[in-house]
């Protein structure tokens, strides 16, 4: 693997370096909320998943969810980060309609997880480490709807108090592609760990993008923060549009305002938040309703011992154990379900052929059918058996595609399809010789041309024989016999 | 029975068992006493129908021999406790009309033990005040009046913030009253009204369902007529609550047994720093008497030093407003309480909070916001938390030498209502009570004598964390020796 | 006769005269979302200054080596199980709302 070099963006007046840091909010995959017993599930009616604690009723107090603490630790371990055995919950004070307490319980000075890193691979095959600054636990806010009424906003507190892990990167990314790769990798790690479902459409994973530009070698420029991006495509679009905007302003002699911006999905552009919030002064202080969170080192070790294989380790193993290409290994290691499917299918088979069938034929077909891998009509054992029938010579690769198409339709076993449709490959030299003789006899003129030096016609004869056999002749045998007869 | 109102809770409970009276009769007598003493403005809501229903249910249980520890005992509830189905305002305009759908853990314990709810009691707005003058319902009048001197004829404060609770107890318009104490809000009014007031160890009583003032200091506790009632009520109020992360999971010592244990062999510290220059000589004399009473009962009293005492009050007036400024952010006119409409969300917030909070609450929100704001946090808030550590350390050190501390409860007796006082002077009311809140340790005020003007004065005992039994032991001895059996002139009969 | 409270402690106070600039009250009132009547501002400013002057006496103590104390209880943060035990009662949540519609709280429109 090669280290990538910082890509520069060429402006009208020279090159610019782009500096990107991301704050990702990942919803913990818990049943209940971080500090209350109401459900954290998505999709309930307004204010149904709300307890008196979430609505900040007078005298209602927070009590923390053990599972959420454990998931933060697991995630920290998965990010190769230091786990802080003592962490503190602070109040971040500000007023907003969907923040019932008037403060968010978060971790400011002493987060539960400290520095770590994520390794990303780019399309050119290069890779780099992106530093993690910290991970802390905090409450989500509720949801405001501004488009339901001409003069009112509606407030739903279902998300209020849902547990989030805020994962803050170092400003280590230099392009939208790197940012996208970082979020993809982070999401893969979270999913492997099972600590967050990574569902961006439902808001389980959102990113705030801090972007600035500078002349190479110069000090950091002023950054803007574009909030709440909920797809990897939007993250890339928002960064690219922000980079273009900032360079344009700077090259025109202007300055960048440090501000919070919003991304418009329709235009692919960012715009400043219209509600110009006054200079933030969050007045953080330790939440007196909670006590310092102390973790038992032995408990942390126990969690460490139960960590699953993570994407990097899996990818390395796929490369070593199965001899896959780096590309296939990356593709298959992105998702644990994909990897599991692959490893089941490849068991005892030619691993490379299985990988090829999976990434090309299976993924292509599922994509067309709009199906997830979990719903694939072809089960991994069946795909493995299909490859086995190719390698043991029962069917040809071409016939295998027909068999596969029928398997997709019916979910049937490959052997059953081969048997029923009579796809079994003909390797009997006598039968094939007879077919060859007939083809050569019917095309005496072409035989003469071939023998006169027109080598290209060999393919024509193979095609004719295969056609005569209805595709069932073993192509290797056909090739060999044809050569003997024509050249011999 | 002829004089139901004169019975203590322990006596009334025994009378109920002996069928000398019924819970319904007892409750009816208190409901009448509420009417008779309505002038003192102690009650902000009387739940007469609910009270009679609860009393009837108590009678049913008593008849079956299933009466609880507080069965049939009429209780007045400070309006800081959320009471299910009964308006709860914290004596603030901003919470007017708020009807909780839930009950505070502490009051739940009282009802589970059979107590009867009479109504809600006035207090300082969000418990911020020491004279019960910041309430949106207006001030409460102390049932005690001066018999002579400059204060004669003047309406006096019951103290605060649990002013309505202490006044109702002194007026005999309730038999038990749970209060809340953030810097002295149980002990100071109890002292001003001739009642026993106990602030337990931080975490003894669940804070769940109590309107928060300053979360790291707030504790609920009993205001009672005597020390035995205090032991009885404290036992009922306390208990671990999984709904409050700061709740303590430790058994309460047997407080009823502690009533008769005595103080023989106990070491009592007399802190040098609680002697203030220019302090009222009557209070100094009473303090001296208290020491003699304890020694007569077999305790040994020694001078001790709590060197950081003088810094407790200023540290408190940083920590408490800081927490309050955050705790009161939820009163924003969105989910409950009063709203004043505005053109924008921020406009609505500012108008709602500007109109909903009184001057004292606003002042504390501003101080709290200021000391937490960027550039001031370390100089004020962190500094105060450091001083808080020194104060706690003072107590930890001194409790290696002594079992408890004896101090006056307040630097003065009750003062006139409406007395013009600047904020800092008003804060000085809490000078003897605040240190125990900062350190999270239990303290009790026991009525111990009258001033020459005829107003009640209290002595305070302070004990190490979890040693409420030590307080009850010492308080029972002081109570017996003081023989305080005076009744306020404004008491119902 | 009881002494006025003002006389207590006075000799112990180390009052550093302190002023607050005229923008302070509006700034913190804005942070706290508190509408303050203009005629109250200067009085409040003085009150705040006098309280802050009074707390300045803490500076007489060297606390550089003291760990700040945020909570007095010695115990650790209790952890609860991840079980849904609450919610599903929008009526209770909305029962005190000053303005609501179809189970939403309603506020003046916010422009983001
Ligand atoms: Mg952010
Ligand atoms: Zn966050």
In short:
By secondary structure, chain A is an alpha+beta fold. Chain A contains 15 helices and 17 strands.
Question: Which features characterize this protein?
Answer:
heterotrimer, A: 488 residues, alpha+beta, Arc Repressor Mutant, subunit A, 17 strands, 39% helix, elongated, C: 112 residues, two-stranded antiparallel ribbon, 8% strand, flat, disordered N terminus, binds magnesium ion, binds zinc ion
Verbal overview:
The complex is a heterotrimer of chains A (488), B (493) and C (112). Chain A is of the alpha+beta class and 488 residues long. In chain A, 39% of the residues lie in helices and 19% in strands. Chain A is elongated. Chain B has one domain (1-493): Amidase signature (AS) enzymes (Alpha-Beta Complex), CATH 3.90.1300. In chain B, 37% of the residues lie in helices and 12% in strands. Chain B contains 16 helices and eleven strands. Chain B is globular. The relative contact order of chain B is 0.15. Chain C has a domain at 4-66. A two-stranded antiparallel ribbon of chain C has the order 2-3. In chain C, a hairpin with a 2-residue loop joins strand 2 (100-101) and strand 3 (104-108). The radius of gyration of chain C is 24 Å and the shape is flat. Classes of the chains: A alpha+beta (488), B alpha/beta (493), C alpha+beta (112). Chains in contact: A-B, A-C, B-C. At the A-B interface, loops of A face helix 10 and helix 11 of B. The site of zinc ion has 3 residues of chain A, from loops.
Compile the SSE list and pairings.
The complex is a heterotrimer of chains A (488), B (493) and C (112).
Chain A (H helix, E strand, L loop, with lengths): L7 E3 L4 E13 L36 E2 H13 L7 E2 L2 E4 L9 E4 L9 E6 L5 E13 L3 E3 L6 E5 L6 E7 L6 H18 L11 E10 L9 E6 L2 H20 L8 E5 L4 E4 L12 E2 L6 E2 L2 H9 L5 H12 L3 H8 L2 H11 L4 H19 L10 H12 L5 H14 L3 H8 L7 H14 L1 H8 L5 H12 L6 H13 L1
Helix pairs in contact in A: 2-3, 5-6, 7-9, 9-10, 12-14, 12-15, 14-15
Chain B lengths: L8 H9 L5 H14 L6 E4 L1 H16 L10 E5 L26 H8 L3 E6 L41 H8 L6 E5 L5 H6 L3 E4 L19 E6 L2 H11 L17 H4 L8 E5 L9 H16 L3 E5 L7 H16 L17 H12 L2 H14 L4 H22 L5 E5 L14 H5 L6 H6 L3 E8 L5 E7 L5 H15 L11
Parallel strand pairs in B: 2-3, 7-8, 7-9
Antiparallel strand pairs in B: 1-3, 4-6, 5-6, 5-10, 9-11, 10-11
Helix pairs in contact in B: 2-3, 7-16, 10-12, 10-13
Chain C lengths: L23 H8 L6 H18 L23 E2 L9 H5 L5 E2 L2 E5 L4
Antiparallel strand pairs in C: 2-3
């Amino acid at each position: 693997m090669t280290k990538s070099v910082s890509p520069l963006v060429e402006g009208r007046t020279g090159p610019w370096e782009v500096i990107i840091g991301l704050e990702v909010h990942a919803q913990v995959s818990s049943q209940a909320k971080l500090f209350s017993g109401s459900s954290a599930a998505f999709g309930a009616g307004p204010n149904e998943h709300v307890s008196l604690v979430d609505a900040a009723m007078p005298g209602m107090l927070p009590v923390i969810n053990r599972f959420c603490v454990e998931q933060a630790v697991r995630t920290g371990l998965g990010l190769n980060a230091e786990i802080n055995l003592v962490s503190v919950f602070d109040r971040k004070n500000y007023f907003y309609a969907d923040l019932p307490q008037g403060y968010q319980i978060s971790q400011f000075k002493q987060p539960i997880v400290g520095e770590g890193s994520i390794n990303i691979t780019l399309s050119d095959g290069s890779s780099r480490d992106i530093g993690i600054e910290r991970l802390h636990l905090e409450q989500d806010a509720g949801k405001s709807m501004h488009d339901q009424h001409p003069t009112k906003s509606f407030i739903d507190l279902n998300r209020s108090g849902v547990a989030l892990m805020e994962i803050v990167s170092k400003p280590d990314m230099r392009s939208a592609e790197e940012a996208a790769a970082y979020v993809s990798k982070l999401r893969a790690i979270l999913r492997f760990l099972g600590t967050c479902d990574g569902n961006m459409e439902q808001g389980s994973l959102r990113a705030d993008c801090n972007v600035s530009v500078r002349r190479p070698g110069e000090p950091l420029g002023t950054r803007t923060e574009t909030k709440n991006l909920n797809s990897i495509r939007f993250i890339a679009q928002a960064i690219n549009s922000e980079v273009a905007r900032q360079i344009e302003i700077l090259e025109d002699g202007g300055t960048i305002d440090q501000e919070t911006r919003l991304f418009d999905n329709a235009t692919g552009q960012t715009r400043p938040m219209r509600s110009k919030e006054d200079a933030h002064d969050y007045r953080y202080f330790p939440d007196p309703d909670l006590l310092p969170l102390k973790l038992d080192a032995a408990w942390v070790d126990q969690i460490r011992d139960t960590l699953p294989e993570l994407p990097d380790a899996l990818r390395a193993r796929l490369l070593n154990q199965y001899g896959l290409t780096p590309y296939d290994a990356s593709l298959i290691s992105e998702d644990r379900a994909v990897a599991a499917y692959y490893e089941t299918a490849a068991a005892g088979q030619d691993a490379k052929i299985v990988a090829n069938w999976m990434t090309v034929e299976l993924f292509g077909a599922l994509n067309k059918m709009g199906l997830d891998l979990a719903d694939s009509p072809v089960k991994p054992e069946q795909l493995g058996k299909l490859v086995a029938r190719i390698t043991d010579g029962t069917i040809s690769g071409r016939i295998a595609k027909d068999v596969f198409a029928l398997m997709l339709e019916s979910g049937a076993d490959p052997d059953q399809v081969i048997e029923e449709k009579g796809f079994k490959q003909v390797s009997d030299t006598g039968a094939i010789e007879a077919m060859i003789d007939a083809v050569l006899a019917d095309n005496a003129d072409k035989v003469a041309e071939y023998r006169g030096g027109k080598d290209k016609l060999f393919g024509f004869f193979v095609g004719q024989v295969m056609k005569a056999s209805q595709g069932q002749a073993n192509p290797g045998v056909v090739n060999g016999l044809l050569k003997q007869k024509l050249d011999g | 029975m002829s004089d139901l109102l004169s019975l203590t809770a322990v006596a009334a409970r025994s009378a109920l068992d002996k069928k000398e009276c019924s819970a319904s009769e007892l409750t009816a007598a208190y409901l009448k006493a509420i009417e008779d003493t309505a002038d003192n403005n102690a009650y902000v809501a009387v739940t007469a129908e609910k009270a009679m229903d609860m009393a009837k249910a108590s009678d049913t249980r008593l008849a079956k021999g299933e009466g609880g520890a507080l069965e049939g005992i009429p209780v007045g509830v400070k309006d800081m406790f959320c009471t299910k189905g009964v308006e709860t305002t914290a004596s603030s305009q901003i919470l007017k009309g708020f009807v909780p759908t839930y009950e505070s853990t502490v009051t739940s314990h009282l009802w589970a033990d059979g107590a009867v709810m009479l109504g809600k009691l006035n207090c300082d707005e969000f418990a911020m005040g020491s004279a019960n003058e910041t309430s949106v319902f207006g001030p409460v009048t102390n049932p005690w009046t001066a018999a002579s001197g400059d204060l004669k004829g003047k309406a006096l404060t019951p103290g605060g913030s649990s002013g309505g609770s202490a006044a109702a107890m002194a007026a005999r318009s309730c038999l038990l009253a749970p209060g809340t104490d953030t810097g002295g809000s149980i002990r100071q009014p109890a002292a001003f009204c001739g009642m026993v007031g106990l602030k337990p160890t931080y975490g003894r009583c669940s804070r769940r369902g109590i309107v928060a003032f300053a979360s790291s200091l707030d504790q609920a506790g009993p205001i009672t007529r005597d020390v035995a009632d205090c032991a009885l009520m404290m036992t009922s109020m306390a208990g671990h609550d999984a709904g409050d992360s700061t709740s303590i999971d430790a058994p309460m010592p047997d407080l009823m047994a502690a009533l008769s244990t005595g103080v023989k062999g106990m070491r009592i510290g007399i802190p040098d720093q609680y002697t203030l220059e220019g302090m009222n000589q009557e209070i100094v004399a009473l303090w001296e008497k208290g020491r003699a009473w304890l020694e007569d009962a077999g305790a040994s009293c020694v001078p001790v030093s709590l060197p950081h005492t003088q810094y407790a009050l200023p540290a408190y007036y940083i920590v408490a407003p800081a927490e309050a400024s955050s705790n009161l952010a939820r009163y924003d006119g969105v989910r409950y309480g009063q709203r004043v409409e505005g053109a924008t969300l921020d406009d609505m917030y500012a108008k709602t909070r500007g109109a909903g909070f009184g001057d004292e609450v606003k002042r504390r929100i501003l101080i709290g916001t200021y000391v937490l704001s960027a550039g001031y946090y370390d100089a004020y808030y962190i500094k105060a938390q450091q001083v808080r550590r020194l104060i706690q350390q003072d107590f930890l050190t001194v409790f290696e030498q002594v079992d408890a501390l004896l101090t006056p409860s307040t630097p003065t007796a009750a003062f006139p209502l409406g007395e013009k006082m600047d904020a800092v002077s008003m804060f000085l009311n809490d000078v003897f009570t605040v240190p125990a809140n900062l350190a999270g340790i239990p303290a009790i005020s026991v009525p111990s004598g009258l001033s020459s003007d005829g107003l009640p004065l209290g002595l305070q005992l302070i004990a190490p964390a979890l040693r409420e039994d030590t307080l009850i032991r010492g308080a029972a001895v002081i109570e017996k020796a003081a023989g305080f059996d005076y009744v306020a002139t404004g008491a119902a009969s | 006769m009881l002494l006025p409270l003002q006389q207590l402690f006075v000799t112990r106070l180390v009052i550093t005269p302190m002023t607050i600039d005229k923008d302070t009250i509006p700034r913190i009132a804005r942070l706290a979302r508190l509408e303050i009547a203009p005629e109250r501002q200067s009085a409040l400013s003085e009150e705040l200054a006098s309280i802050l002057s009074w707390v300045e006496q803490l500076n007489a103590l060297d606390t550089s080596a003291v760990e700040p104390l945020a909570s007095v209880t010695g115990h650790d943060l209790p952890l609860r199980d991840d079980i849904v035990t609450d919610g599903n009662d929008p009526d209770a949540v909305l029962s005190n709302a000053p303005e609501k519609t179809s189970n939403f709280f309603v506020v003046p429109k916010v422009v983001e």
